[in-house]
Amino acid sequence: MPRAKITAYINQDLVAAMRRLAVHQGRSASDVLEDAVHRFFDATRQEGEHHALMARFDRIMARLALLEQGQETLFELTAHTTRFVMSVSPDIPEMDKADVNARGSERFRNVIAAMVAKLRTGRSILRDQFGPTIEHSTPDSHVGAAAE
């Protein structure tokens, strides 16, 4: 690449150190100075990339904190619901337990199948009820986010 001549004023001590280094390495003072400028710009670019990466990590951590809060809320709701159901459910006579367990298993499979079918369509009761306030992320939605 062709070089351009520039005039720069730098401290005499730096000039002397640059010339000593050039002689020691068998290079021109211009080459030493050019290497120093390249290193400065590389460090600046890397620092900018580091700050962008840290900002991205901060956004990810904030989203993880929201997920953790949501999981805690869901666990709390599930625990209270389970306690309530167990406190109001009558005892099942021994001779009816097999039939009740079979019906319960079938109902549970039906509920799970309905959940899976609805979630596969990209919909959920949560999104249906609260609409656009709930952000739905797909694996592809983060592809462009890495460039942020």
> Structural class, please?
mainly alpha
Shape: rod-shaped
Largest sheet: none
Beta strand count: 0
Secondary-structure element string: HHHH
Distance separating the two termini: 31 Å
Could you characterize what this model shows?
The protein is mainly alpha-helical and 148 residues long. It has a domain at 96-137. 70% of the residues lie in helices and 0% in strands. It has four helices and no strands. It has helices spanning 12-25, 29-88, 97-120, 125-130. Helix 1 crosses helix 2.
Features:
148 residues, mainly alpha, 4 helices, rod-shaped
SSE diagram, text form:
Layout (H helix, E strand, L loop, with lengths): L11 H14 L3 H60 L8 H24 L4 H6 L18
In short:
With 148 residues, this protein is mainly alpha-helical. Helices cover 70% and strands 0% of the residues. It contains 4 helices and no strands.
